[in-house]
Each structure stands twice: as structure tokens, then as C-alpha cells.
Amino acid sequence: MEFEFKGNRLKFDKELSNLDKLVLKFVKVLDAQHVDYVIISGYIAILFGRSRNTEDVDLFVEEMPKEQFILLWNALGEAGFECINAGAAESAYEEYLKDQLAIRFAVLGTIEPNFELKFPKTKYNRYSLKNKLFVELNGEELRTSELELQIAFKLYLGADKDLEDARHLYKVFKEHLNIGLMQAHIQALGVAKQAERILWKDKYQS
Amino acid sequence: MERQIPKLTPKDRLEMAKEKQRNMRQRMEFVDLHAEWLRKTPNKVWSKQQKVLLDP
Question: Are B42 and A2 a contacting pair at CB < 8 A?
Fold first, then answer.
């Protein structure tokens, strides 16, 4: 795998899957609307080569006033996306986003893959939005959670696929990670035992 | 015909737990193998193969 990784920027090229193309199309609308976002889901592991698929791409978007959200809603509609769990911008904003619930957008007439959007709620949600990795993929930008947090958070989530994603990202990027930062996230999230089992040993021991 | 749902003994449960652990270990071994392959494989090659999986 060839990439350039410096600070909070990672640049690489790959043959794009339909999912990659869709993600780039979706975040282009967010960029055009000047909406800050961070992708936080399993898509990050897939972006970096993991051999699995996903039905959703999770993102935090910065909290915004209703008027700005309506503009975003309309722009997503014009780009061919529709919200699949709320019928109108007003209710999506008031009954979902403001209530810390997620809204999901998919390509018109489809249900998956879909983009799950939420306003940040917890300290870690806000941290991930503030401390992003800027990925330049085939010359286009997308923003993901920093890898050190993504790995620690996958350990915290703890389903088999999350643990596999954590090990995948660690194994692919281990020389490029800030291990001190990752340890700090691991401590803060209380997943030292999981890290011991999933990350630190060269050979996985069940 | 009525289904005969298996009645699990403690020994059966232990065997199943061991199988679950074995499966997880094998999946992790594959994750390692795959990550190692990715690291030494040009982007053009691995992403083409990934595309086959993602875009059937």
C-alpha cells in the first residue's frame, strides 16, 4: 500500500469502489454547503483496504441552525440523495438531530448503503470532529476520525467486526501511528484489556 | 414433523465456546495475513481486488 502520511494528512490513490465514489459524492455536498463533518464508521477500515462491506457510513456533522440544515437538506436532494427515516427537513431537524438521533440519507429509491448523520453529543463526538484526519483520495478530500481514536473506539465498541477493524488499521498503519496518543485514548475509554488482547500481541491469542 | 431442539450439556456449551474462540482466532489470523499482503501490494492491485468484493 502506497500512501503519504504527514501529521493529520494522508494522501493516496486507489481504484475507487462504488462505495468510495458515493462517499466522495456525499461529502462534496457537505463541503459545498460549508458543513464540517467527520466520518467515524467502519468505512474507514474499508477505505484502507479491509475486505468487508458495510451498509452504512456514519458521520458527525457540526451542529448548525435550522436554516442552514434546510439548505443542506435541499442540496442533498438536488444531488440525488433522500432521507429515508424522516419525511421533511423540519422534522428531521427538530425530532431527530436536535434530539440526538440520527438521520439517514441514501440514493433516491434505495435504502443502502446509507449515510447516518448525527450532531456531536459526547465529549468524544466533539473530539473526533475537532481532531480529524484529512484524506486525499485520488485528488479529492474526505475527513475521517484520527486513526489512533478510530482504533481505540473500535475496541470500545467491541463487536467482532469492530475488533477486526481495529486490528486491521493497527497492522496496516502501525509505524505511522502516534502510539502515545492511542494509549491515551485506550486508557480514557477503559479498553486496556481489549488492546492487550487485540493489538499488542503479534499473534492474536483468544 | 416436530423439530428436536438440541439439549445442550455443559460439555456441549464448552465445546461451542471453544469453537467461537477458534473462529475468532482464525478470523484475526486472516486479518493479519490480509494486512501484511496489503502493506506490500501496490494500491492498484489491492483496490482492484477489493472492488470485486464491494461491487459484485
Answer: yes
Is residue A203 over pLDDT 80?
no
Q: Which ipTM did the prediction report?
A: 0.88
Nearest CA in chain B to A202: B32
pLDDT at residue A174 greater than cutoff 80: yes
DSSP of A10-26: EEE--PPPHHHHHHHHH
Please measure the distance between the N-terminal and C-terminal CA atoms of chain B and give it in whole angstroms: 39
A138 inside 8 A of chain B by CB: no
For chain A, domains (ranges, CATH) are 17-145 (3.30.460.40), 147-200 (no CATH)
Q: Which of B29, B42, B50 lies at the smallest CB-CB distance from A17?
A: B50
CB contact under 8 A, B44 and A19: no
